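To the wet lab folks,

You asked to see what we're planning to order before we commit. Fair enough. Below is the target structure as tokens, and below that is the sequence we designed to fit it. If anything looks off to you, flag it before the synthesis order goes out.
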């Protein structure tokens, strides 16, 4: 019995032990399950957070891409509409300076643009075809456009809950992108006579358009060094020159992409690999006449800061103190053009920033200290602006500057070869002029300019610009000047002919000429553009050597102009020293003319703190 009971006790003990093991196992199983649940939950949580983070990162990267899509959209609108610079939302924070200057308006009608929205209730422009909803808006600062040619744009891209902003400076591609630009690589037909008349060939053609070999093709000689970017729409003729900057041309030639005037010419040196490279034709503007509108006071929406208008032959002498001395005896009103009835201001109240016109009925002495006086009037250089010199209007009596064909200011003696303000000099042989336009014409829209310039200004002429002396900057880092002529820009080089008969005063008899200027060199700090003709030295082939012509800036011309010769007894004229003003990569002279079809490039770009949150509210 004792054994039985003991066995039963053992059996009961074993069962109890088994139950305890089952309990422990259950606890272990439950513990493992809990751990697994935690691990699964953690893994799921990590997976979901990774998905969220991945989506956030994707949206973050896409937002900056959307911002740059906005920049591209704005550039496209500028390329298709040159007047688009005036459009933007004045209420945008980035546009505060433009609002103060009154240079910005919202487009309406078919030009309405959702990208100009601001604030939480404002619109965004959407980007079609993107996986996630992407949109952008942009703000414009055009307050410096007329003075530097630069537009500032802040674009904000939005994707999901992410928003990012970038700021870019946009600058027009134009003539000042090059130290040297030419449309045709031949001398001006208006000066050579090769204009397709009188049995002579028409030389206003590109080399690949079957241009005659008798056209006066001008070459880059072995001593020429071009220290900056160069572009010609024509085939360039090269005889051993050195090109230190990039060279592009629209020629149809391929290898080489230039022509040698003769087999004896040495191979040119192109320092930039790939030069000369192909680039399409850059069209010349048909005229600089639109620049005159920049002096109007009756279209303030388009011209919030009018420049200065002068009439007839005008002499401009820059002074190092930031002033300029202007003599312009034909000028009656310097700003009121267009419709006088709607103009803001009158000649008496609107002219003071541009000088005081003289009284046509008074003598030179009585007109002292006015634009008509024999020494002109000293005024401040218009800040970041333009002056335009027009020819004397004779067909519209309502024009404030109208003159009859038989009248002239008192003290101005017009002759068949004189303009009444000192040109030509005594004993000067009147220089060659472009066909159809008189040199030193008494009623021409000509500018005679020299001096030490301080400020930012463009000088534009309806006819010629004569550079009568050195033009230098008082501060080479701050000052900037543009010279734009409808016709030629001349480096003044007056000559006296000592021959007894006029027939001997020709280029065929260079020994009969002597120089009237004693200086041996010339320097011009400016961006130079001749719209229809050429940049050229007067009498470049007469009077012997003059020294070095230094141009620090840019030169653009329709036809290539000579500045000297290397033959004969030591040659004539000037040796070239052309230097590119590197500032033109980012800025331009005020209101400088641009090609009729142009694009905008980004000169500066940077990401900044976001301007708006994803909900459109200011950040």
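Sequence we intend to order:
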């Amino acid at each position: 019995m004792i054994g039985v009971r003991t066995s039963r006790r053992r059996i009961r003990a074993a069962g109890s032990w088994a139950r305890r093991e089952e309990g422990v196992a259950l606890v272990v199983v439950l513990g493992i399950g809990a751990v697994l649940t935690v691990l699964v939950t953690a893994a799921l949580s990590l997976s979901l957070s990774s998905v969220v983070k991945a989506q956030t990162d994707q949206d973050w990267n896409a937002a900056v891409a959307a911002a740059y899509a906005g920049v591209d959209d704005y550039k496209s609108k500028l390329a298709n509409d040159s007047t688009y610079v005036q459009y933007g939302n004045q209420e945008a924070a980035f546009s505060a300076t433009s609002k103060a200057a009154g240079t910005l308006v919202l487009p309406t009608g078919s030009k309405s643009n959702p990208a100009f929205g601001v604030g939480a209730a404002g619109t965004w422009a959407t980007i079609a075809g993107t996986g996630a909803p992407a949109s952008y808006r942009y703000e414009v600062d055009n307050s410096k456009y007329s003075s530097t040619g630069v537009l500032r744009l802040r674009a904000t891209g939005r994707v999901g809950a992410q928003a990012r902003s970038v700021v870019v400076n946009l600058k027009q591609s134009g003539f000042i992108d090059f130290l040297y630009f030419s449309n045709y690589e031949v001398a001006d037909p208006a000066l050579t006579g090769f204009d397709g008349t009188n049995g002579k060939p028409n030389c206003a053609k590109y080399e690949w358009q079957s241009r005659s070999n008798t056209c006066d093709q001008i070459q880059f000689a072995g001593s020429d060094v071009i220290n900056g970017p160069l572009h010609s729409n024509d085939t360039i003729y090269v005889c051993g020159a050195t090109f230190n900057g990039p060279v592009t041309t629209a020629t149809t030639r391929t290898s080489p992409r230039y022509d040698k005037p003769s087999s004896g010419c040495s191979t040119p040196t192109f320092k930039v690999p790939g030069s000369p490279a192909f680039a399409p034709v850059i069209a010349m503007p048909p005229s600089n006449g639109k620049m005159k509108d920049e002096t109007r006071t009756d279209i303030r929406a388009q011209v919030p800061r009018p420049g200065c208008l002068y009439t007839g032959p005008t002499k401009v002498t820059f002074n190092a103190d930031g002033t300029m001395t202007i003599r312009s005896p034909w000028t009656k009103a310097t700003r009121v053009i267009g419709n006088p009835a709607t103009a803001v201001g009158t000649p008496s109240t609107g002219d003071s920033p541009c000088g005081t016109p003289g009284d046509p009925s008074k003598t030179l002495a009585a007109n002292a200290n006015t634009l008509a006086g024999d020494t002109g009037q000293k005024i401040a250089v218009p800040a970041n602006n333009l002056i335009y010199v027009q020819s004397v209007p004779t067909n519209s009596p309502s024009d404030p500057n109208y003159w009859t064909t038989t009248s002239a200011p008192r003290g101005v003696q017009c002759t068949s070869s004189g303009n009444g303000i000192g040109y030509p000099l005594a004993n000067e042989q009147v220089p060659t002029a472009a066909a159809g336009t008189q040199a030193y014409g008494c009623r021409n829209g000509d500018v005679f300019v020299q001096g030490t310039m301080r400020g930012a200004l463009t000088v534009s002429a309806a006819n010629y610009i004569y550079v009568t002396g050195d033009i230098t900057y008082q501060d080479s880092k701050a000052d900037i000047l543009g010279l734009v002529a409808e016709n030629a820009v001349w480096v003044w080089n007056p000559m006296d002919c000592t021959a007894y008969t006029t027939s001997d005063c020709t280029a065929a008899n260079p020994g009969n000429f002597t120089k009237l200027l004693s200086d041996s060199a010339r320097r011009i700090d400016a961006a130079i553009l001749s719209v229809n003709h050429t940049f050229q030295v007067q009498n470049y082939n007469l009077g012997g050597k003059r020294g070095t012509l230094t141009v620090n800036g840019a030169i653009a011309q329709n036809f290539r102009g000579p500045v000297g010769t290397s033959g004969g007894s030591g040659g004539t004229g000037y040796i070239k020293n052309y230097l590119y003003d590197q500032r033109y990569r980012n800025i331009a002279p005020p209101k400088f003319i641009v090609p009729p079809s142009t694009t905008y490039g980004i000169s500066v770009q940077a990401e900044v703190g976001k301007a708006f949150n994803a909900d459109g509210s200011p950040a």
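Structural context that might help your review: The longest strand covers residues 522-537. The radius of gyration is 36 Å.

Thanks,
Computational group
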